[in-house]
Amino acid sequence: MAGKKKELQLQVVITNQEHWHEVMSAKGLTVVDVYQDWCGPCKAVLSLFRKLKTEIGDELLHFAVAEASHFHTLDAFKGKCEPVFLFYSGGKAVAMVKGVNGPLLQKTILEHVQEAKKKQEMGDKYIEAPVRFIFFEGLYIVLLFQTDLSDDSYTVAIIKPDAVSQGKVDEIKNKFQEAGFILVTEEQRHLTAEQARDFYLDQAGQSEFEDLVKFISSGPCHVLVLSRGTEANKDVPAWKELIEQSDVELMKAHPSEKLKYQESSDSKELASRELAFFFPSFGKEQQKTDTDEAITPEIQKTLALIRPDLLREKKKETLQKIRESGFTIAMQKEIMLTEEQAKGFYREHVGQDYFPVLIKHMTSGPILALALAREDAVQHWRNLLGPKKLEDAKEKAPESMRAEFALENIPINQLHGSSSPEEARKDLEFFFPVEQTLAVIKPDAYKEHKDDILSYIKEAGFSISQMKETVLTKEMAEGFYKDHRGKHFFDELVQYMSQGPSMMMILSKENAVQEWRDMMGPTDPELAKQSNPSSLRAQFAKSILENAIHGSSNVEHAKKNINLIFENINLE
């Protein structure tokens, strides 16, 4: 009995909805163990909770237990065997940990207790960090943030994979529209794990970061851009009212409260970066429809080049700096320039004293070409770079990237940027031309997953220029895979590829060859599941041999195989 009494003193037993709101509104951090009636609260964490309670004290840390079936707030967790711990601060949910993970629980508690302490110390000066998670009807997660692109305020809502897979998109859209919000544009996207990491870069240090990346890349998301509309529509419900009407009880997020950072320049850059991630041309399109008086920041793309020595020595640090500066890396390509290509790209510098040295340097090793997207990308990137001459950069702009990433004994600056929007367009076309690549849905995947794979292809922005169903003869399969002739798996591969119909497609897009290969993932599906779980092979491949899809390895390979399958086709 004494032990039971000790546990009850440690954890408040929440008995009803009114009691729930009372407990959640306590100062500091409240950790709720959500349990099922057949198994009771989790006992494995009690010693950890007791230790933390002793170290931190009663003022900032509270523990509670709640049976899932007793609260409509917890409908999402009814019947789940896995323990769930919810974290509340100031009446608002701030985190969630699934499973008995002691180190993660301790890390999450300490992080949020520190934040609660900071809030107490700063009082009215404290600015709440944004909470990205909202549960629609206790289950469907939506992310909201706001950005001012004109006199209107635009909100981006991301309907995440679980809601999309359950067919809830139309229902959620209707709730927004019924409340008076205008749907400006929408898009369905399946993010790779790398893209998800880029998108959530500002949360990279959080304990749940990898879980978030894994979740957001687990399936297609549906992205909405919403507007409160003109002055006549300003009486539509605020987000808080809309969320309450939608029975969003768990992890309520009211952007006008939580996203106070939207008034600062840093947060506007973050909002613009995230909008640019999904809709790079959104600002440009809005300019056409807004009034002349409205000033609409334009979402642009610009070219950035990381030159050979810097790429070799500080690639990771350079990319990190670029992302921290509010840019989304829309495309990237590592390339070894020929002398002819380098001279063509820098043709305007012909005749300058430094031209031979520049060309020699640009062809001395691989460079990394980046398509960077954000509001006013061209000018912002140029400002970030600083003066072209290293001496000027170091003397006049020591905080510029050219000064920061200058390398010893190398007289040439290590970063390039386009000088105008028109030049950026030409530069991007130079490094990221519209390409064609051959994509093949192999026999086993064609039979079982054709429609799913085609859906992913379209969502990724590829144009399908040509497609046809083909049963490869043995001779065609041997020709198709002639580069593998003589390898131990060649005969088995030929037999597999000629066993039934395949879907042959010509895909067109900027940087199509590399983007399709990234989307496919590693040849080995087990490796794909570990390194890129959202890739097509991670989802649909059975083995290294039966790996669902094929893609050309380079542009020349694509041309040869396209001509083999689609005879005499004109790719111009």
UniProtKB/TrEMBL annotation:
GO biological process, one term: UTP biosynthetic process
InterPro entries documented for this protein: NDK-like_dom, NDK-like_dom_sf, Nucleoside_diP_kinase, Thioredoxin-like_sf, Thioredoxin_CS, Thioredoxin_domain, TXND_domain-containing
PANTHER family associated with the record: NME/NM23 FAMILY MEMBER 8 (PTHR46135), THIOREDOXIN DOMAIN-CONTAINING PROTEIN 6 ISOFORM X1 (PTHR46135:SF5)
Superkingdom, taxonomy of origin: Eukaryota
Pfam families: NDK, Thioredoxin
Protein name, per record: Nucleoside diphosphate kinase-like domain-containing protein
Binding site for ATP: 442, 489, 517, 523, 537, 547
Active-site residues, Swiss-Prot/TrEMBL: 416 (pros-phosphohistidine intermediate), 550 (pros-phosphohistidine intermediate)
Domain Nucleoside diphosphate kinase-like: 152-286, 299-433, 434-572
Family: Belongs to the NDK family.
MF GO annotations: nucleoside diphosphate kinase activity
